[in-house]
Specification:
Length: about 450
């Protein structure tokens, strides 16, 4: 490769990651560079590419495409595939790793035989035959290639794919409408487990395309917008830890992500400034809210007796609506980070505000409606469930025990109404991390 921005960037990638990054389609880039990366190395790569001025976009399933900020003059896009997303119809990943070839500058390269078998699997999977043949012809000219191909295919049980790709002219003649027809692909599937997996992936992709409506070209360049993931639960449930796990999982996929603590409106400086004149208007000697629910068991404030009875005057009714609106606005500010392409994980969300408002003030239908309609729509909501006793042990003195006990059924009701993913936070930390990672991976797979 000639010295250009792409080569310079790949040299930096090789220097940082070594054999943890592989040019699995070859050293000569086309319209982009295909890079296979060890999952644990994705955060390092993400930082490097961000510093180089690239940004991440959703690609094909399992892929993340890092695009230059401005077209022209910069490096080519990097199409990143994680080791964990390596398709089953390709040669085995351990086998590919054992046959790597070095490059003059940049990450190591998959062997010619492995690349040929990958292209064969893609032809069975529906990739345009012309593109496959264009990639295979230069490989056929390599010294000893036919013998290497046969040897690798025999070791990987991929002889059927080797037969297909070893005769590019015959493959071209088989094409119908530019692709290997389904009957031919099915005939190969009878002989090869890899071909069966490739046909299955082809059918699944076609069904997904039909379900999403008329094709508008590949989605990977535009991609869906950044995610908004919310984590709710009473204090002591482990929200901050869970949010950090989700952030790490997204970054491991090469996606820029950030945890944002969405402060509840009742704690904002603005509401604190407004509280004094409101109390004057109401002529209240105490707070509108239940002070224990709002401030914890050691709070010295008292609730005005006229509020404790459940009857509200107009100004106190309006005050609760203002508190709910302030909550929703704080969530909107947190979610606005997505405009910069950031995937946002919010520690606390409207679910927590619903519970908090009900405990402080009792049910208030209008305030709940304001909170519901003003809060941004999330892509995934998670509730970390914990019992009152465990929460009290984890955060002693943070909340009164009767308040924690009241939270349990309120959170359970909200989880049902909002369709939250419920995770028992009393489980071992490793189990929780595994569950959270699986939930995030499932979400990414649908996008």
């Amino acid at each position: 490769m000639t010295e250009d921005p792409t080569s310079a960037l790949l040299e930096r990638v090789a220097g940082l990651l070594g054999y943890r990054a592989i040019l699995w389609r070859g050293a000569e880039p086309g319209s982009d560079v295909d890079l296979l990366v060890l999952d644990s190395a994705l955060p390092e790569l993400s930082r490097l590419l961000t510093e180089a001025g690239l940004h991440a976009e959703a690609g094909d399933p399992g892929h993340v495409v890092w695009m230059p900020s401005s077209p022209g003059g910069g490096p080519l896009p990097l199409d990143i595939l994680a080791f964990s997303s390596w398709p089953s119809h390709y040669p085995s990943l351990p086998g590919v790793m054992s046959r790597l070839q070095t490059s003059e500058a940049g990450p190591p390269v998959a062997s010619a035989a492995d690349r040929a078998l990958i292209f064969a699997a893609e032809a069975v999977g529906g990739r345009p035959v012309e593109k496959v043949v264009d990639r295979i012809r230069p490989l056929l000219e390599g010294s000893g290639f036919p013998d290497d191909l046969r040897q690798v295919a025999a070791g990987e049980d991929l002889e059927a794919l080797a037969d297909l790709i070893g005769r590019p002219d015959a493959l071209t003649a088989l094409a119908r409408r530019g692709r290997l027809p389904y009957p031919r692909a099915a005939a190969l599937a009878v002989r090869s487990a890899a071909a069966r997996a490739a046909v299955g992936a082809r059918v699944a992709a076609r069904l997904a395309e039909m379900a999403s409506g008329p094709s508008r070209g590949r989605r990977r360049r535009a991609g869906p917008g950044p995610l908004l993931v919310t984590v709710s639960g009473m204090d002591g449930a482990g929200k901050s830890t869970a949010a950090g796990i989700i952030e790490a999982r997204l970054r491991a996929q090469g996606l820029p992500a950030a945890v944002i603590w969405a402060r509840i409106g009742g704690e904002s400086a603005l509401l604190n400034r407004l509280a004094t004149p409101v109390k004057r208007v109401l002529r209240r000697s105490g707070t509108v809210a239940d002070p224990v629910a709002a401030g914890g068991p050691g709070i010295e404030k008292v609730q005005d007796p006229r509020e404790a009875g459940g009857r509200r005057r107009l100004v106190s009714w309006a005050w609760i609506v203002i508190v709910a609106t302030a909550n929703a606005l704080s969530y909107r500010r947190a979610a606005s980070e997505r405009r910069r392409g950031m995937h946002v994980i919010c520690d606390r969300w409207a679910t927590d505000a619903f519970v908090d408002l009900e405990l402080r003030y009792g049910r208030h239908r209008v305030a709940e409606a304001m909170l519901r309609h003003l809060s941004p729509e999330r892509d995934l909501g998670i509730l970390l469930e914990v019992d009152a006793r465990t929460a009290a042990l984890r955060k002693p003195g943070d909340q009164a025990e009767h308040v924690l006990a009241a939270m349990e059924p309120l959170y359970a009701r909200r989880a049902r109404e909002e369709g939250l993913v419920r995770i028992d936070s009393r489980r071992p930390p490793a189990d929780i991390e595994q569950t959270l990672s699986a939930v995030v991976d499932a979400l990414l797979a649908t996008r």
